[in-house]
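Input/output pair, single chain:
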Amino acid sequence: MFGRVLSDGGFWADWAVVIGLAVMLVVFQFADPTYLSSGNISSILVASAILVVLSLGQTFVVLTGGIDLSVASVMTFSAVLFGLGVRNGWSIVGCGLLAVLGGALFGAVNGLLIGRVRVTDFVVTLGGLSAASGLALIVADGKPVTVVDAGLLKLAAGGFGGVGGAVLVAGTLAILAHLVLFRTQWGTHVLAVGGSPEAAVATGISVAAIKIAVYTVCGTLAGSASILLVARVGAAEPAANTSFLLNSVAAVVLGGASLAGGRGNIVGPVLGALLLTALSNGLTMLGVSPFYQPVAVGVVVVLAAILTRFRT
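Output:
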C-alpha cells in the first residue's frame, strides 16, 4: 500500500509543502548561518502574516472551484479606506472597521455577480481587480496617507510577549478558518459545492448562497489584511501590489488545494505562505536580485502543480 502511494505520487503531492519548506530552510541555513536566527525567523513570520490572511480568503473561494483575482486590489482599496478614516480624524478602531466593511462589500458584490447573475468568476474578479485599483486611486487622490499609531506599531514590530501582533492575528484567523471549514455545516457545504455543484443542489444546498458567502469572506479577510499592511508600511498606499495576488494563489496551490474545488485544508495554504515568504527572505539574504525572485516563486508553484496532478 505504502509503495503504491509513493509510486503514484500521492505522498509527495500531500507533503510537498512540508518537505519543500524543510529542505529550503536547511539549504538557506547552510548558505547563511544567520538564516535560522530568532530575529530572522520572527521577521519571516511577521512578513508572512499578510499573505497568510489573504491566502485564507483565497482558499475558501478555491474550495468552491472559483478564484478571486481582485483580492490584492481589494486589500489596497480597504487600506485607502483606512487612510480616509485617519484623514478625517476617526479612531484607529473605526478606521479598521471601515477597511474590513469595505473589503466585505466588494467581496459581496463579486459573489452576487458570480452566484446570482452567473457571470464567470474569472471575468468578475478581473473586473473587480481593475475597479478596486481605480477606486483606491480616486479615493486617495493618488496620494498615500501616513498612519502613526502605537497599536499599529505593535502589529508591525511585535510587542505582544515577544510574538508579533500580526502573527497572532494571522494565527487566530487561521484557527477560526479551520474550525469553520471542518466543524460547521457551512464548511461542509463549501466543500460539497466545490466537489459537485449538481450533487450539492440535489441535497438542498444553495450554490449561489455559498458562492456569495465565500467571496464575501474573501473580501472581509482582504480588508483585515489591509490593516496589517498599513501597520507594516506605516501608510495607506493607493498603489496596488499585484505580487500579493499571485502569491495568494500560489500559497493555495502549494498547500495542496485542488483548483477544481472540493479538496483542501487550511494548514496547507498557511505553510505555503510561509514557504513563499521564507524563500523571498532567503534569496534577499543571499544577495539575489529581486528580479529573479518572481522566477523562483514561479518555478516552485509549477512544481507543486505538477505534483498535485498525481494526487489520487
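Strands lie at 145-146, 235-236. Confidence is low (pLDDT under 50) at residues 1-9.
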